[in-house]
Design a protein that fits this description.
64 residues; mainly alpha; elongated; membrane
């Protein structure tokens, strides 16, 4: 088995470390962007969709 110099260890560990840091930054960005200014609009859109579905279900039940 070949022996590894110090630089071989560094070149072997850098890509996983870079990916770990980028993944952590991605998760932090996603968590920070939850809510905020668009949260009210998103909640209103979901509430409207639920209300429309509920109204359609009630209308179908009234027809039967």
């Amino acid at each position: 088995m070949a022996s590894l110099d110090g630089m071989d260890y560094v070149s072997a560990i850098v890509p996983p470390l870079v990916m770990a840091v980028l993944f952590t930054l991605l998760i932090v960005t996603i968590v920070k962007n939850q809510g905020g200014a668009n949260k009210a609009k998103e909640d209103a859109a979901v509430d409207a969709a639920f209300a429309a579905a509920e109204a359609a279900a009630k209308a179908k039940a009234a027809d039967n």
